[in-house]
From TrEMBL:
Residues 17-27, 74-86 have a biased composition (Basic and acidic residues). Its EC number is 3.2.1.2. InterPro entries: BES1_N, GH, Glyco_hydro_14. It comes from Macleaya cordata (Five-seeded plume-poppy). Residues 142-158 have a biased composition (Pro residues). GO terms for molecular function: beta-amylase activity. One of its GO terms (biological process) is regulation of DNA-templated transcription. It comes from the Eukaryota. Residues 1-14, 28-66 have a biased composition (Low complexity). This is Beta-amylase. It catalyses: Hydrolysis of (1->4)-alpha-D-glucosidic linkages in polysaccharides so as to remove successive maltose units from the non-reducing ends of the chains.
Length: 685
């Protein structure tokens, strides 16, 4: 009994020691565990804790699933992010490339072929008079003395040296502030919007300054009290050449386009005496020659391979009387006529009869509407025209002209021949037909839905290994859509995914192939004669990433592509001259801003891309009868002032608004314009 009691007492003491925090055993235990213990929750607290544990477990499972091999959704998102990153990088590189090209071309900076930002900073520092060592050490060894500040002149000229680095085509881009409006202008400072193309002065944005702050009172390179003329901003300070003085500039020949109405639909000269009077007036203006359309729909209008040239023979003989040069246009398109004296001219009647039975010889939009302005390029090698292919029909027409007027070629009266390659005689798809309801600044529609072009698309998709790509985009909008309203042309739209790049490349390559095929035969027909190809100016939506209007016209020229270099490489093989349609001021600045238009930026790209490949470039105005400002704008395009290589247009074709004998008020401005083209002053002396 006593032993049992002793054992019980010992067990009781041991249990008490386990519970006694002051006991040695308890101290040993607590020395190995945290000093505070969590009490097990009960009741509502227990249920809440259990729910939290369940949620955490579910989140962990989801994360594990996404990170594991079966996480398809996460993998797709990562692939999309990689694609977006590549797009952003291509866009950044395109902007950098254009900036470097502008610095080399118009800033006279000698940058290496693979220049980086360090090279640019070093060049800018050296231009400012600093010394830059190869290891990057930059210093100014002997700073120039600071002269006392001159008094502020009342003239709005820039009081600080400014290096001109603008596009040569943009001298009127900033002339929206007149001297009267300058009194109402708020002080402003110029900043560059890095998201836009550096080749356009439209990327120069005027930022409003806080009228209460004088932070920029002396630091701005712009006179804060007045608005500046663009010419003052863009030319170097110093002895400046007067804006109207073109004396000593290269001689650019000027041709005047005669109206279509001089020859009627029966190939008869309408008014010989009226033509003589008009040519007499042109001769008094010292023009170098005239340009004449030779219409396929008139000469071969009634029967295939039955050519009637009688009216043109009479017209050319009259031109020869005045000893003017002659350029002829092989016009394989229709003309709707206008107020300039042009008459409507359709395609040949026998071609239209074929088209009634086989409408696929014409360009077709997604809705199936046929455009009879010109023949589809899908029949270039298809015997759809009474046993002849499209290019055979064009070649027979050109060969007939060359044979008929061989004497004029021999004596040198005919100086050049322009080959019509598409709508309006320009190398483009008929994507902006007004008779279909198109209005500026609509993006237009793709014209590839006739059966012949669809066969070509299916063949290209099969070769690529993706037969399901043999279709046109189904989210490209309508003729008058805006890019942001479509899934194809919007930012990060389908135009830049794998299918979009395939389709646009095929669409543009079809245009290039058509030009190559026709020009190969034209070179045979007119061997030894200058050949001209007309390139359009599709400048609206140029400031957007997709360049939607250019894409529908056939030029694959978004911000991350150069759509003109591949074309010009092919044209260079034919030793021809490019005639660029110089953009006019048909639309107001507000309309152009809403259309994200950039005519100067597009002109800069097209002209320099052609000149860089050694192609001669000519010009033609897109709008008739300019005022003095319009003429000056053309002159700046024809003779870029700051071009270090002294590039200039080979000749210029002036498209008149109506017969000049009816527009005597235009003579004074036109006379000054021609004298400037010939290297004289704009103002009469």
């Amino acid at each position: 009994m006593n032993n049992n009691n002793n054992n019980n007492n010992n067990n009781s003491n041991n249990y008490k020691q386990d519970l006694d925090p002051q006991s040695d055993h308890s101290s040993d235990q607590f020395s190995q565990q945290p000093q505070t213990q969590q009490r097990r929750p009960r009741g509502f607290a227990a249920r809440a804790a259990a729910a939290a544990v369940a949620v955490a477990s579910a989140d962990a499972d989801a994360m594990a699933a996404e990170s594991g091999g079966g996480g398809g959704k996460g993998k797709k998102e990562r692939e999309r992010e990689k694609e977006r990153t590549k797009l952003r990088e291509r866009h950044r590189r395109a902007i950098t490339s254009r900036m470097l090209a502008g610095l080399r071309q118009y800033g006279n900076f000698t940058l290496p072929a693979r220049a980086d930002m360090n090279d640019v900073l070093a060049a800018l520092a050296r231009e400012a008079g600093w010394t830059v060592d190869p290891d990057g050490t930059t210093y100014r060894s002997s700073p120039p003395p600071h002269p006392p500040p001159p008094p502020i002149p009342p003239s709005p000229l820039i009081p600080y040296p400014v290096r001109s680095m603008e596009s040569p085509l943009s001298t009127s881009s900033l002339k929206n502030c007149t001297s009267k409006a300058s009194l109402e202008c708020q002080p402003s400072v110029l900043r560059i919007d890095g998201s836009l193309s550096p080749v356009s002065l439209d990327s120069v944005v005027v930022a409003e300054r806080d009228p209460k702050s004088e932070k920029y009172a002396s630091g701005s390179p712009v006179n804060s009290s007045q608005c500046l003329e663009a010419d003052q901003l863009m030319r170097d300070v110093g002895p400046q050449e007067h804006v109207n003085d073109f004396r000593g500039t290269p001689y650019v020949p000027v041709y005047v386009m005669l109206a279509t109405g001089v020859i009627n639909n029966f190939c008869q000269l309408v008014d010989p005496e009226g033509i003589r009077q008009e040519l007499r007036q042109l001769k008094s203006l010292h023009v170098d020659g005239v340009a004449v359309h030779c219409w396929w729909g008139i000469v071969e209008g009634w029967n295939p391979q039955k050519y009637v040239w009688s009216g043109y023979r009479e017209l050319f003989n009259i031109i020869r009387e005045f000893k003017l040069k002659l350029q002829v246009v092989m016009a394989f398109h229709e003309s709707e006529g206008n107020e300039s004296g042009d008459i409507p001219v359709s395609l040949p009647k026998w071609v239209l009869e074929i088209g009634r039975d086989n409408q696929d010889i014409f360009f077709t939009d997604r809705e199936g509407r046929r455009n009879t302005e010109c023949l589809s390029w899908g029949i270039d090698k298809e015997r759809a025209l009474k046993g002849r292919t499209g290019i055979e029909v064009y070649f027979d027409f050109m060969r007939s002209f060359r044979t008929e007027f061989d004497d004029l070629f021999v004596e040198g009266l005919i100086s050049a021949v322009e080959i019509g390659l598409g709508a309006s005689g320009e190398l483009k798809y008929p994507s902006f037909p007004e008779k279909m309801g198109w209005r500026y600044p609509g993006i237009g529609e793709f014209q590839c839905y006739d059966k012949y072009l669809q066969q070509s698309l299916r063949k290209a998709a099969k070769v690529r290994g993706h037969s399901f790509w043999a279709r046109g985009p189904d989210n490209a909008g309508q003729y008058n859509s805006r890019p942001h309203e479509t899934g194809f042309f919007c930012d990060r739209g389908d135009y830049d995914n794998y299918y979009g790049r395939f389709f646009l490349h095929w669409y543009a390559q079809t245009l290039i192939d058509h030009a190559d095929n026709v020009l190969s035969l034209a070179s045979l027909a007119f061997e030894g004669t200058q050949i001209i190809v007309k390139i359009p100016a599709v400048y609206w939506w140029y400031k957007t990433s997709s360049h939607a209007a250019e894409l529908t016209a056939g030029f694959y020229n978004p911000t991350n592509q150069d759509g003109y270099s591949p074309l010009f490489e092919v044209l260079k093989q034919h030793n021809l001259t490019i005639k660029y349609v110089c953009p006019g001021s048909l639309f107001s600045a507000t309309e152009n801003d809403e259309a994200f238009a950039d005519p100067d930026g597009l002109s800069w790209q097209v002209l320099n891309s052609a000149w860089d490949r050694g192609l001669p470039v000519a010009g033609q105005n897109s709008l008739p009868c300019y005022d003095k400002e319009g003429y000056l704008r053309i002159l700046e395009t024809a003779k870029p002032r700051n071009d270090p290589d002294r590039h200039h247009l080979s000749f210029f074709v002036y498209q008149q608004s109506s017969p000049l004998m009816q527009r005597e008020l235009c003579f004074s401005e036109l006379d000054s314009f021609i004298r400037c083209m010939h290297g004289k002053s704009f103002d009469a002396t």
